[in-house]
Amino acid sequence: MSLPKTTKAILVQKTGGPEVLALGEVATPTPSADKVLVKVEWAGVNYVDTYKRAGVYTLPLPLVLGEECSGTIVALPTSESVLNSEQYALRNFHVGDRVACTVSGSFAQYAAASWEKCWKLPVNVETKIGALCVLQGLTALTMIRETYTVKKGDYVLVHAAAGGVGLLLCQACSYLGAHVIGTVSTLAKAQLARENGAEHVIISKEQNVIQEVMKLTDGKGCHVILDGIGKDTWEDDFEMIRRKGTIVTYGNASGVVPPFAPLKLAGKNIKVARPTLGNYIVTAEESAEYFSWLFELIDKGVLKFHVHDEYPFTADGVRKSQTDITSRGTTGKLVIKVE
Ligand code: NDP
Hints:
Bound molecules: NADPH dihydro-nicotinamide-adenine-dinucleotide phosphate
CATH superfamily of the largest domain: Medium-chain alcohol dehydrogenases, catalytic domain
Number of helices: 10
Mean pLDDT: 97
């Protein structure tokens, strides 16, 4: 298949507010040893896009924004050792297959994804779902299996329970039999979190979150706290975690968590984890485990995707998606239709 020499992409040339985003042209990725080349149809919006744009994470510039997509394979890896490997054979990729992948630089017409981070979409799963489920779905699943193994009867506190990762955590943890307590900022978000598996929801702008959590857990606190808010909720987490519990701080929506002394953990013998998805799905076996579980839970109807809005593949469209996701006004997933 002949590919265009250049591809349209959303670029960050210098860090700053949403206004620094520009639609530009970059060289179309060429087929390479271990990459699957994808014609992008949908790209998921994630909080991490805003960190990269604003410079919270320092990266070489210019960069193409976006961390996940779904679309169609237009070229396969070229390395014989990849093509002959057992794990690659299990993926059974062909040109024309519909896939979902995590890949940096997905806000573009073409993206080159490591084959290990790419998964063929089951026939009954729409292409769009691929871009809704991958990054946030795999993040939720790796955290509740590996960072802390959620068990039946556990009290699980999910901050930002109506957000992209939050709704999926509510769905998956309630499926595993945990008591899910969600925090959200509005009544409308509380309703959505309840519909998605939260047994109790606390409205953080109206209620005393610590008091409510301690009431709901008989004064003991939660077994695990899943916190993507970061700075604003960090200190309170230490009040709401139970003895021997685990605080999982996995994001910085309100700002980065400050450094702390390990002795802080000794008060209740607690653990703190700061996981990233990228470091859980490094090998083909690891990614296969979580992609399989993700699509099994989608197939069973356990994981469902609530779309806040769809945005056009223009500088204004992507800027708006970034303003929206940081506004605290969104619920579930934001997605870009890539033309
Ligand atoms: P969300 O849809 O959850 O949006 C963020 C939510 O955080 C808001 O809707 C808001 O919910 C809450 N929030 C609380 N305080 C603030 C604040 N001061 N500013 C902005 N938001 C605030 O986003 P995502 O689902 O995309 O991501 C959730 C978190 O997960 C992010 O921190 C992200 O970085 C992290 N993440 C981490 C990954 C990893 O590998 N570690 C991978 C993927 C995501 P409310 O108003 O209801 O409180």
